[in-house]
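Here is one chain, start to finish.
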Amino acid sequence: MKSPIKIFIAEDHPFYSKGVTNVLEAHNQYVVVGATEFPLEIIPNLKSRKPSILILDINLSGYNSFDLIPEIKMALPTIKILVLSMYLPSDINIVVVQKDIDGYVLKNSGTEFLINALNAISTNKKYWDPNIGLDSHHANDTFTKKTKLSTRELEILAYLKEGFTNKQIAQKLFISEFTVKTHRKNIMSKMEANNIVGLLKKY
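Its structure:
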């Protein structure tokens, strides 16, 4: 049996850290090994507890966490960083694909997106919350195409990646199966994919 993936949480609100911890207790492939709300405690804790993934809030006791990332990466080059924030990147003038992070999830997106992000990051993939969009003119071609997708299309694309059928997606989003099919057609066109296999390869 594989050992669970260790996660450390740096979050300004302890009750939120507890909430994330409670969510992850239902997923035995992950274990939270600690949490802090103080920026200066992050690196010592990472060194002593040796997690694979750091869940990082943007605001920590008056610090901008993005300013701490270079120092964290210098001390622990292999650590995976998932930003969990209430802010859209565009609201704080951040282009996520230019930052040394592995994922970005909005706090109000729900636990499913958090788990999707952790699953992706733990297999060395990047994960951007479908609700944030991506707005970097330095991004690669796939990211550039994805910026053309609407929030709903990005959400459906995320579900397709997870293997959900049109019917299942319709039930989750409380829309008709026909609407899902229409969105899929538009996604395929915008992403310049000929079929679902090609679409998911681009994603």
